[in-house]
Amino acid sequence: MGFWVLEDVYMDRPPGTSKLGEEQGPSFDAASTSDLKRDGDIILVPQPSDSPNDPLNWSPMWKNSILLILAFSSGVTTSLGPMISPGLILISEQFNIDPDTASTFMVGSILLFTGSATFFTASGANVWGKRPFFVISTLLLLISNIWGTFADSFPSLAAMRIFQGMAAAPLETLVTSTVSDLFFVHQRGFRLSLWGVMLGAGVLIGQIIAGFIIESLGVSGTFAITALVFCLILPAMYFVVLETTYTKPRGNFDKRPESRASSVADLKGDDPAKEPRESYKSQLQIYRGRLSDESFWKGVIKPFPLICFPAVIFSTLVYGSFFCWLLMIGVLSVTVFSAPPYSLTPAQIGLTNVPLAIGALIFSPLSGWMSDAIPVWMAKRNNGIYEPEFRLVLMLIAVPLSTAGFIGFGVAAQEGLSLVWCLVWITMHSVAVPFATQASISYVIDCHTKDANQAFVTINFVKAVISFVASTIGNGLMAKMGPRNLFIGIAGLNLVISLLTIPSYVFGKRLRSWVARSEWAKKI
């Protein structure tokens, strides 16, 4: 038992367990790892092929460029939902609707339809590759923002948000699996943190900028400016973000004699070292035909049974909870700050996100670094054996910060304390979010790498449903219960969900083994 992760009596190395260091554990002899590729003293997981077309072998500059463009695009896309928050009161007054209806169709609907569309985009990405979905998504988002610029009625605006939600699906759900295509296990935490920085910046900085735009140009001005941003993203997406799905066989990481034979058999007659480098012009193709023989429709329904996997259940609940409440604080704070004793304007409401954004920009990279550094440190002291559960240590930071933040903000808003106190407590929760996000997302990717696309579909869909419901009833509940009781309730619910970390950490290895050995899981 390494660091209180219980060993499994059936499998020494269930999916996710791997060798990261030079130290030899009981299941790893020197001969079995001597010919594996390494980064310093860290064995590369997964093991790259010798092909120049293997994305794992692309230059660091190219891989990081793809990541940065996707992360920035994902951040801008994520901002589309909450960026309307500073103008929700204006929209409700302009179209004579109540605040909950405005919140439902302007914020909740885009999240719900994004979550629904991901079932199709994730399955399609597995069959035809990710590149066509990234490029088409960017184009459709450009069109949707032009539509929003000229929408002159609430039904038109609501329909645009539904269309926008479906168009946003690839950029919100395929980035995590692209990270696993391009980077090794010990490199993913930091890269996912960059993606997390952009998501946090989209949610928070988007509202700051949108507040000033709404006050100067109206709600339609936010869509006009965003359309210009997507005009810049589209060529970058086309010329830099190449297809990262690699369909040729790689060498088997398991180098024990009994598995080496099957590995050689898999590679027989297909020497990746002799594979010519694909030309850049060829890589620019949008449609490359089928990259997999998998059934598209089977892929569409695959995320549903994945919710039975313990790692997916845990990550779904934790990620969905922390993200939902971050979004809801943005929505509910508009109601709190626009009313006495604060009486802030849309621009001023947008500025309340400044400390949250600063916190996200500082702690998202830190959480990413810790997400890689802590598991590697633990693995080296665990006979070189890495367990995905080591990622969950970050929850020790996320849980107390989020709990205190919810309760503090509820009390401060109820008592009408100074704006500074409100922002201090909100910022505490925003700082907790990247740690919880890193823990949950990197954990499920490590446990179910091959199913990362569909697993994140499950996670994102549940997040979307929770957020849709919360945005629909949030203002009504706060009016009925008051900020203090509402946020104490949220703190309690979030804490209960977060405490699932303990059984997930202790029994995680056994649960991964159970899934790997289960006949029903093999059929999914």
Structure write-up:
By secondary structure, this protein is mainly alpha-helical. The chain has a single domain, classed as MFS general substrate transporter like domains (Growth Hormone, Chain: A). About 70% of the residues lie in helices and about 0% in strands. The chain is built from 22 helices and 4 strands. The chain has helices at about 30-35, 60-80, 90-95, 100-130, 130-150, 155-175, 175-180, 185-215, 220-240, 255-265, 280-285, 295-300, 305, 310-340, 345-350, 355-380, 395-415, 420-445, 450-480, 485-500, 500-515, 520; strands at about 20, 40, 40-45, 385. The chain has a two-stranded antiparallel ribbon with strand order 1-4. Strands 2-3 form a two-stranded antiparallel ribbon. A hairpin with a 2-residue loop joins strand 2 (about 40) and strand 3. Helix 3 (about 90-95) crosses helix 4. The radius of gyration is 23 Å and the shape is globular. About 50% of the residues are buried.
Show the helix and strand layout:
Blueprint: E1 18-19, H1 30-33, E2 38-39, E3 42-43, H2 60-79, H3 88-94, H4 99-128, H5 131-150, H6 154-173, H7 175-182, H8 185-217, H9 219-240, H10 257-267, H11 280-283, H12 296-301, H13 303-306, H14 310-338, H15 346-351, H16 354-380, E4 385-386, H17 395-415, H18 419-447, H19 452-481, H20 483-498, H21 501-517, H22 519-522
Antiparallel strand pairs: 1-4, 2-3
